[in-house]
Protein backbone atom coordinates (compact mmCIF):
# COMPACT_ATOMS: atom_id res chain seq x y z
CA UNK A 1 0.00 0.00 0.00
CA UNK A 2 1.05 3.64 -0.39
CA UNK A 3 1.74 3.97 3.33
CA UNK A 4 4.13 0.99 3.30
CA UNK A 5 1.85 -1.49 5.05
CA UNK A 6 1.09 -4.90 3.56
CA UNK A 7 -2.52 -6.06 3.38
CA UNK A 8 -5.68 -5.10 5.22
CA UNK A 9 -5.34 -7.14 8.43
CA UNK A 10 -3.71 -5.88 11.64
CA UNK A 11 -0.67 -7.95 10.71
CA UNK A 12 -0.25 -5.69 7.68
CA UNK A 13 0.90 -2.92 10.02
CA UNK A 14 3.41 -5.21 11.75
CA UNK A 15 6.95 -3.95 11.08
CA UNK A 16 8.26 -7.51 10.62
CA UNK A 17 5.67 -8.19 7.90
CA UNK A 18 6.62 -4.95 6.16
CA UNK A 19 10.30 -5.89 6.52
CA UNK A 20 9.98 -9.37 4.99
CA UNK A 21 7.99 -7.81 2.16
CA UNK A 22 10.83 -5.39 1.64
CA UNK A 23 13.37 -8.23 1.74
CA UNK A 24 11.38 -10.07 -0.92
CA UNK A 25 11.56 -7.00 -3.17
CA UNK A 26 15.32 -6.65 -2.55
CA UNK A 27 15.82 -10.37 -3.20
CA UNK A 28 14.32 -9.87 -6.66
CA UNK A 29 17.06 -7.40 -7.56
CA UNK A 30 15.24 -4.13 -6.94
CA UNK A 31 16.95 -1.55 -4.72
CA UNK A 32 15.64 1.59 -3.01
CA UNK A 33 14.17 3.75 -5.76
CA UNK A 34 15.42 1.51 -8.56
CA UNK A 35 14.04 -1.49 -10.40
CA UNK A 36 10.48 -2.79 -10.80
CA UNK A 37 9.88 -2.68 -7.04
CA UNK A 38 12.13 0.25 -6.13
CA UNK A 39 9.18 2.40 -5.10
CA UNK A 40 7.85 -0.41 -2.92
CA UNK A 41 11.23 -0.76 -1.19
CA UNK A 42 11.22 2.98 -0.44
CA UNK A 43 7.73 2.74 1.06
CA UNK A 44 8.89 -0.07 3.35
CA UNK A 45 11.87 2.01 4.48
CA UNK A 46 9.69 5.06 5.10
CA UNK A 47 7.22 3.07 7.19
CA UNK A 48 9.89 1.48 9.37
CA UNK A 49 11.82 4.70 9.94
CA UNK A 50 8.60 6.54 10.79
CA UNK A 51 7.89 3.95 13.48
CA UNK A 52 11.28 4.04 15.19
CA UNK A 53 11.28 5.64 18.64
CA UNK A 54 14.00 7.79 20.16
CA UNK A 55 15.39 4.67 21.84
CA UNK A 56 15.85 3.02 18.45
CA UNK A 57 12.98 0.57 18.96
CA UNK A 58 11.01 -0.13 15.77
CA UNK A 59 7.48 -1.09 16.67
CA UNK A 60 3.81 -0.36 15.95
CA UNK A 61 1.87 -1.11 19.17
CA UNK A 62 -1.49 -1.17 17.35
CA UNK A 63 -0.38 -3.96 15.01
CA UNK A 64 -0.98 -7.63 15.66
CA UNK A 65 2.21 -8.99 17.19
CA UNK A 66 3.99 -12.25 17.96
CA UNK A 67 6.58 -10.43 20.07
CA UNK A 68 8.01 -6.92 19.64
CA UNK A 69 11.67 -7.95 19.45
CA UNK A 70 10.90 -10.37 16.61
CA UNK A 71 9.59 -7.39 14.72
CA UNK A 72 12.46 -5.12 15.67
CA UNK A 73 14.98 -7.74 14.52
CA UNK A 74 13.39 -8.26 11.11
CA UNK A 75 12.90 -4.51 10.63
CA UNK A 76 16.54 -3.81 11.49
CA UNK A 77 17.73 -6.59 9.18
CA UNK A 78 15.80 -5.10 6.27
CA UNK A 79 17.06 -1.58 6.97
CA UNK A 80 20.64 -2.86 7.14
CA UNK A 81 20.26 -4.59 3.77
CA UNK A 82 18.64 -1.49 2.28
CA UNK A 83 21.29 0.83 3.75
CA UNK A 84 24.04 -0.78 1.70
CA UNK A 85 22.04 -0.09 -1.48
CA UNK A 86 20.78 3.42 -0.68
CA UNK A 87 22.03 6.99 -0.76
CA UNK A 88 19.52 8.08 1.89
CA UNK A 89 21.11 10.23 4.58
CA UNK A 90 18.37 9.50 7.13
CA UNK A 91 19.01 5.77 7.12
CA UNK A 92 22.41 5.40 8.78
CA UNK A 93 21.66 7.18 12.05
CA UNK A 94 18.35 5.39 12.58
CA UNK A 95 19.89 2.03 11.67
CA UNK A 96 22.75 2.63 14.10
CA UNK A 97 20.23 3.50 16.81
CA UNK A 98 18.24 0.31 16.14
CA UNK A 99 21.45 -1.74 16.35
CA UNK A 100 22.44 -0.05 19.59
CA UNK A 101 19.12 -1.08 21.11
CA UNK A 102 19.82 -4.71 20.20
CA UNK A 103 23.29 -4.55 21.73
CA UNK A 104 22.01 -2.95 24.93
CA UNK A 105 19.15 -5.44 25.44
CA UNK A 106 21.20 -8.64 25.16
CA UNK A 107 20.61 -10.58 28.37
CA UNK A 108 23.13 -12.20 30.69
CA UNK A 109 22.79 -15.55 28.87
CA UNK A 110 23.77 -13.93 25.58
CA UNK A 111 20.36 -13.92 23.91
CA UNK A 112 17.17 -11.93 23.50
CA UNK A 113 13.43 -12.43 23.94
CA UNK A 114 10.09 -10.74 23.26
CA UNK A 115 10.66 -7.38 24.91
CA UNK A 116 13.51 -4.86 24.51
CA UNK A 117 14.90 -5.54 27.96
CA UNK A 118 17.61 -7.67 29.51
CA UNK A 119 15.40 -10.42 30.91
CA UNK A 120 15.12 -13.96 29.56
CA UNK A 121 16.02 -15.26 26.10
CA UNK A 122 15.00 -17.80 23.48
CA UNK A 123 16.67 -19.12 20.34
CA UNK A 124 13.91 -17.91 18.02
CA UNK A 125 14.13 -14.23 18.94
CA UNK A 126 17.91 -14.44 19.23
CA UNK A 127 18.37 -15.45 15.58
CA UNK A 128 16.48 -12.33 14.48
CA UNK A 129 18.88 -10.11 16.41
CA UNK A 130 22.14 -11.76 15.35
CA UNK A 131 21.10 -11.65 11.68
CA UNK A 132 20.35 -7.94 12.03
CA UNK A 133 23.72 -7.40 13.72
CA UNK A 134 25.53 -9.31 10.97
CA UNK A 135 23.79 -7.36 8.20
CA UNK A 136 24.60 -4.08 9.90
CA UNK A 137 28.24 -5.01 10.40
CA UNK A 138 28.45 -6.00 6.73
CA UNK A 139 27.13 -2.53 5.88
CA UNK A 140 29.74 -0.77 8.03
CA UNK A 141 27.82 -0.23 11.28
CA UNK A 142 29.82 -0.93 14.44
CA UNK A 143 28.84 -4.08 16.35
CA UNK A 144 30.83 -4.99 19.50
CA UNK A 145 32.69 -8.27 19.15
CA UNK A 146 31.72 -9.19 22.71
CA UNK A 147 28.03 -9.07 21.77
CA UNK A 148 28.65 -11.60 19.00
CA UNK A 149 30.80 -13.87 21.16
CA UNK A 150 28.20 -13.98 23.92
CA UNK A 151 25.54 -14.84 21.34
CA UNK A 152 27.67 -17.70 19.98
CA UNK A 153 28.00 -19.11 23.49
CA UNK A 154 24.25 -18.86 24.03
CA UNK A 155 23.41 -20.61 20.76
CA UNK A 156 25.91 -23.40 21.33
CA UNK A 157 24.48 -24.03 24.80
CA UNK A 158 21.01 -24.22 23.23
CA UNK A 159 21.93 -27.27 21.14
CA UNK A 160 20.59 -30.64 22.22
CA UNK A 161 22.54 -33.91 21.91
CA UNK A 162 20.46 -34.84 18.83
CA UNK A 163 21.86 -31.81 16.96
CA UNK A 164 18.66 -29.80 17.12
CA UNK A 165 18.07 -26.78 19.32
CA UNK A 166 15.94 -26.22 22.41
CA UNK A 167 13.74 -23.14 22.67
CA UNK A 168 15.20 -21.87 25.94
CA UNK A 169 18.17 -22.90 28.07
CA UNK A 170 15.81 -24.25 30.70
CA UNK A 171 15.50 -27.29 28.43
CA UNK A 172 13.16 -28.78 25.87
CA UNK A 173 12.93 -30.89 22.75
CA UNK A 174 14.44 -30.00 19.42
CA UNK A 175 12.14 -28.83 16.63
CA UNK A 176 12.59 -28.04 12.94
CA UNK A 177 12.02 -24.24 12.84
CA UNK A 178 14.20 -23.33 15.80
CA UNK A 179 16.90 -25.81 14.80
CA UNK A 180 17.16 -24.29 11.33
CA UNK A 181 17.32 -20.90 13.07
CA UNK A 182 20.04 -22.14 15.41
CA UNK A 183 22.29 -23.17 12.54
CA UNK A 184 21.80 -19.82 10.79
CA UNK A 185 22.48 -18.00 14.07
CA UNK A 186 25.90 -19.66 14.20
CA UNK A 187 26.59 -18.83 10.56
CA UNK A 188 25.48 -15.22 11.13
CA UNK A 189 27.82 -14.96 14.12
CA UNK A 190 30.75 -16.12 11.99
CA UNK A 191 30.86 -19.81 12.93
CA UNK A 192 31.12 -21.59 9.57
CA UNK A 193 32.28 -25.05 10.55
CA UNK A 194 32.57 -27.36 13.49
CA UNK A 195 30.62 -30.09 15.25
CA UNK A 196 27.72 -27.78 16.14
CA UNK A 197 27.16 -26.84 12.50
CA UNK A 198 27.39 -30.41 11.22
CA UNK A 199 25.07 -31.85 13.86
CA UNK A 200 22.61 -29.02 13.31
CA UNK A 201 22.54 -29.54 9.56
CA UNK A 202 22.02 -33.28 9.95
CA UNK A 203 19.09 -32.68 12.29
CA UNK A 204 17.44 -30.22 9.88
CA UNK A 205 17.95 -32.62 6.96
CA UNK A 206 15.47 -34.97 8.62
CA UNK A 207 12.79 -32.47 7.55
CA UNK A 208 13.67 -32.47 3.85
CA UNK A 209 10.43 -31.58 2.01
CA UNK A 210 8.88 -34.53 0.22
CA UNK A 211 7.62 -34.18 -3.34
CA UNK A 212 4.55 -36.33 -2.76
CA UNK A 213 3.59 -34.66 0.51
CA UNK A 214 2.14 -31.23 1.16
CA UNK A 215 2.51 -31.76 4.92
CA UNK A 216 3.42 -28.42 6.45
CA UNK A 217 5.37 -28.21 9.69
CA UNK A 218 4.14 -25.79 12.34
CA UNK A 219 5.66 -22.38 11.55
CA UNK A 220 6.26 -23.68 8.03
CA UNK A 221 7.38 -20.47 6.34
CA UNK A 222 9.44 -19.29 9.30
CA UNK A 223 11.23 -22.64 9.47
CA UNK A 224 11.92 -22.88 5.77
CA UNK A 225 13.13 -19.28 5.63
CA UNK A 226 15.97 -20.33 7.92
CA UNK A 227 16.41 -23.84 6.54
CA UNK A 228 17.06 -22.62 3.01
CA UNK A 229 19.66 -20.18 4.35
CA UNK A 230 21.34 -22.94 6.34
CA UNK A 231 21.55 -25.21 3.30
CA UNK A 232 22.65 -22.39 0.98
CA UNK A 233 25.50 -21.48 3.32
CA UNK A 234 26.41 -25.14 3.83
CA UNK A 235 26.46 -25.73 0.07
CA UNK A 236 27.40 -29.06 -1.47
CA UNK A 237 25.03 -31.99 -1.08
CA UNK A 238 22.99 -30.15 1.54
CA UNK A 239 22.01 -27.46 -0.94
CA UNK A 240 21.74 -29.85 -3.88
CA UNK A 241 19.15 -31.92 -2.03
CA UNK A 242 17.30 -29.19 -0.17
CA UNK A 243 16.61 -26.46 -2.69
CA UNK A 244 14.92 -28.53 -5.41
CA UNK A 245 12.72 -30.12 -2.73
CA UNK A 246 11.52 -26.85 -1.16
CA UNK A 247 11.27 -25.17 -4.57
CA UNK A 248 8.96 -27.86 -5.90
CA UNK A 249 6.86 -27.89 -2.75
CA UNK A 250 6.41 -24.12 -2.75
CA UNK A 251 5.49 -24.09 -6.42
CA UNK A 252 2.83 -26.72 -5.68
CA UNK A 253 1.51 -24.70 -2.72
CA UNK A 254 1.17 -21.44 -4.63
CA UNK A 255 -2.43 -20.36 -5.12
CA UNK A 256 -3.90 -19.51 -8.56
CA UNK A 257 -3.76 -15.74 -7.87
CA UNK A 258 -0.05 -16.01 -7.03
CA UNK A 259 -0.08 -15.91 -3.26
CA UNK A 260 0.80 -18.39 -0.53
CA UNK A 261 -1.45 -18.91 2.49
CA UNK A 262 -0.66 -18.74 6.19
CA UNK A 263 -2.68 -18.06 9.34
CA UNK A 264 -0.64 -14.93 10.16
CA UNK A 265 -1.29 -13.35 6.77
CA UNK A 266 -0.97 -14.26 3.12
CA UNK A 267 1.34 -11.28 2.65
CA UNK A 268 3.73 -12.79 5.19
CA UNK A 269 3.58 -16.24 3.59
CA UNK A 270 4.04 -14.85 0.09
CA UNK A 271 6.99 -12.68 1.12
CA UNK A 272 8.70 -15.61 2.83
CA UNK A 273 8.09 -17.91 -0.15
CA UNK A 274 9.52 -15.32 -2.53
CA UNK A 275 12.62 -14.86 -0.37
CA UNK A 276 13.17 -18.64 -0.22
CA UNK A 277 12.78 -19.08 -3.97
CA UNK A 278 15.12 -16.17 -4.77
CA UNK A 279 18.03 -17.19 -2.54
CA UNK A 280 20.02 -18.56 -5.53
CA UNK A 281 19.76 -15.16 -7.25
CA UNK A 282 22.29 -13.93 -4.68
CA UNK A 283 20.99 -10.35 -4.50
CA UNK A 284 20.68 -10.06 -0.72
CA UNK A 285 24.08 -9.45 0.94
CA UNK A 286 23.07 -11.40 4.07
CA UNK A 287 22.72 -14.56 1.95
CA UNK A 288 26.09 -14.28 0.28
CA UNK A 289 28.50 -17.06 1.08
Summarize the structure.
The chain contains 11 helices and no strands. The chain is mostly helical.
How is this structure best described in words?
With 289 residues, the protein is an all-alpha fold. It is 54% helix and 0% strand. The chain contains eleven helices and no strands. Helix 5 (123-138) runs antiparallel to helix 6. It is globular, with a radius of gyration of 18 Å. It starts with 14 loop residues before the first helix and ends in an 11-residue tail after the last helix. The model has no long low-confidence stretch (mean pLDDT 96).
Number-wise, the strands total 0
Provide mean pLDDT, rounded.
Answer: 96
Helix content: 40-55%
How far from one another are the termini? 33 Å
Extract low-pLDDT stretches: none
Structural class: mainly alpha
Count the helices. How many? 11
Evaluate the radius of gyration: 18 Å
- Taken in chain order, the helices and strands follow as HHHHHHHHHHH
The main β sheet shows up as: none
Strand content: under 5%
Topology:
Blueprint: H1 15-27, H2 38-50, H3 68-83, H4 89-104, H5 123-138, H6 145-157, H7 176-188, H8 195-205, H9 220-234, H10 236-253, H11 266-278
Helix pairs in contact: 1-2, 1-3, 1-11, 3-4, 3-5, 4-5, 5-6, 5-7, 7-8, 7-9, 9-10, 9-11
Amino acid sequence: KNDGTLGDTRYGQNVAIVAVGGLAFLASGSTPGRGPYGVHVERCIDYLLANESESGFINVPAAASHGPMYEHGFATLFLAEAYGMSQRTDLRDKLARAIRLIVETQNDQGGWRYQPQRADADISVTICQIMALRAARNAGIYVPRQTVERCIDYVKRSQNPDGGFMYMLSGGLSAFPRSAAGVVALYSAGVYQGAEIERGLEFVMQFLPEADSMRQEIYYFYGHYYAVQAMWLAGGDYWAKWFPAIRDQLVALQQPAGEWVDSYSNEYATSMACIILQVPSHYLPIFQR
